Amino acid sequence: MKRYLVLVLVLCLPSISQAQVNEEKLSKKQLIEKADYYFFKENFGKALELYTQLMEDYPKNHYIQYHSFVAYHLSTGRGSDMTPLKEYEENEGITDKFYNYWLGRIHYGRYEFELAERHFQAFLDMDIYKTNEIKKESEQLLKSTQRALAFYSNVNDFEVEPLATPLNSEYDDVSPAFYSGHDELLLVSSRPAAMKVDQFQLFYSLKSNNQFSTPRVLRNLGTLDENNTKIEVVNNDGKLFLYKEDNGGDLYFSEPLSSGWSNLQEFNSELRDHLVESHFFINDDETVIYFASNNEDGNLDIFQSTFDPANNSWSSPLPILGDINSDFNEDHPFLSQDGKTFYFSSDRPESIGGYDIFKSEVDPLTGLWSTPVNLGYPINSIDDEINFQLNADNISGFLSSNRLHGQGGYDIYYFHKQGKVLASGTVYNQLTLQPIPDAKVVFHPKKYLDESFTAKTNNFGTFEIEVFEKEKFRAEVYLRNQILYTTEVYTQHDEHHKSFEQNFYVEVPDHFNEETNFATLYQGENNSKPQYEKLEMIGSKFRSGEKVILNNIYFDLHATTFQQESIPTLKKIHQVMTENPNLVVEIGGHTCNIGSHEVNLQVSKARAESVKAFLISKGISSNRLVTVGYGESQPLASNDDEEEGRSLNRRIELRVLNQTLSFYK
């Protein structure tokens, strides 16, 4: 059954007590409302700024503390310390019906998928009013969490590690390109270097004694905006290529000099004016260019342009052949040196989140590219992976990602294939020396702690799992979701055996912490009936009900046009409709019982039409507004009293008829 959101616009004047609000409290209240507005709009950065301002004056306000905590962990504080969580669980877990929703999102962003799954499931199981939007979104988030849990559990043969400081910084560092046998690294970064905000510049770093120097800016190569940050070094002649918006979009190159790099030169004038675009790849022979460009639907596809030496000209760009392009976005192309494998980033459904790296193989007979395959974890994450490039050895390379625990927004990561060894052993009770069944053993590579190899002990307390060989790990032992032991392990083995034994002796507590039942935390009103809501929340998936009662829409008795004092409230309705462009509402007019039924129907319909006319005059499409006159048939109070009854019944109501929704992958 379709749910309707009813917005009640009360037609009486505000009471004197409402008008006599303490100015200082009103200021605090207004600031909290403004912070909450951005919070529920999911502009967590702006909300955090306002909550932080409030905390200076109200440091002990638990409501402000809690919402600051959530906003922080869903924005700049992702992955940081969660120590205050237990206190919030004991308080806001009881009073905030969205607690499980927020914690699900926080744990998902921290790659703590088991906890995220429990919170999302608990939120869906709660007997509370939820909008259809947030129910469907939470169901999709739960599926995404379960999919991510399986994805991260299937670690492939690649090991990933971030480049160390100073190559990565607290800013965006992308598009690594190596020159001179990997002894010189070029990169694009937004780190400060006497430039404008939101601009990028090229930097270079030299390797000496296995250490890279602090990157230095190549000022003569100018600046790039964030959409044109791709660079590439072609191995055959060492040219550095980049794209600029000049000439309608053009490809330029720089050549290595003894003291740096030459000034930019245009590569080929034929490629001007969008015959090549910013996220490009050019092969070593400089005869094929791949680039990403918008198709007719506005999504990014990969295009190809080929040089014809007979005519000394470049072909017009055509979509790459085969199954690479989709109904989603394909970007950041890269071709292996042997020309047989094509790599790119895409947000297609096979992505685990954001942009993932995919690969496709060419059919040597037809020249068509095969159905792309996701490169899996840890190459990909629930965040974005771009700027993939493979070294000539075909087992190592570099990429850029904004994944968890990076130093800045985007960081540069090195990946390589790593041999594996079978780790096996037994988990023992340190006191009784008895084996412990159903314990969880986790190995985290010290180079990249977000990667993990997990095994469970069997009935005999033994486990086995493949992990990277000759690698330092942080090993953890859990029982009943409680960590019992942490140590460092080096996965060394002799030449004749691809296995090693590692036993763990752990102290088992007499009593384990009781696992929280997240579904029963909330102690508020447990029913699925909608509650009253504010006008500002009418289009929000977080609204707590179907009804909103507001003041300040005024009609004279039997009049069908609103008084001028109603304009501020009507403007607020217009603002809400503008901020929620998919919102379609019914405007319902209501009267008290004075007058005949027929007259009341006519008056209520006309009043609804007057509100509609105002909104249309302000640019709201008539297709989003439906008017109905209900007369006196739906009173909110008794008509026996003017002040408490009839004036309340003379009103305008809005009902949400439908919304176009977009959800997480």
Sequence-ordered SSE layout with sheet pairings:
Blueprint: E1 5-10, H1 16-19, H2 23-40, H3 44-57, H4 62-73, H5 85-95, H6 99-109, H7 113-125, H8 132-153, E2 158-162, E3 173-179, E4 184-189, E5 199-208, E6 211-212, E7 216-217, E8 223-225, E9 231-233, E10 240-244, E11 250-254, E12 256-257, E13 260-261, E14 265-266, E15 280-282, E16 288-294, E17 300-308, E18 313-314, E19 318-319, E20 330-335, E21 341-346, E22 356-361, E23 373-374, E24 385-390, E25 396-401, E26 411-417, E27 420-429, E28 440-445, E29 453-456, E30 462-468, E31 472-479, E32 482-490, E33 499-501, E34 504-506, E35 547-550, H9 567-579, E36 584-590, H10 597-617, E37 625-629, H11 642-649, E38 651-658
Parallel strand pairs: 1-35, 27-33, 27-34, 36-37
Antiparallel strand pairs: 1-38, 2-26, 3-4, 4-5, 5-6, 5-7, 5-8, 9-10, 10-11, 11-14, 12-13, 15-16, 16-17, 17-18, 17-19, 20-21, 21-22, 22-23, 24-25, 25-26, 27-30, 28-29, 28-31, 31-32, 36-38
Helix pairs in contact: 2-3, 3-4, 6-7, 7-8
Average pLDDT over all residues: 88
**Outline, from the CA principal axes?**
globular
Low-confidence regions: 1-26, 659-665
* Secondary structure: helix percent: 10-25%
Q: What would a concise description of this structure say?
A:
With 665 residues, this protein is α+β, with helices and mostly antiparallel strands. Helix 6 packs antiparallel against helix 7 and helix 7 runs antiparallel to helix 8.
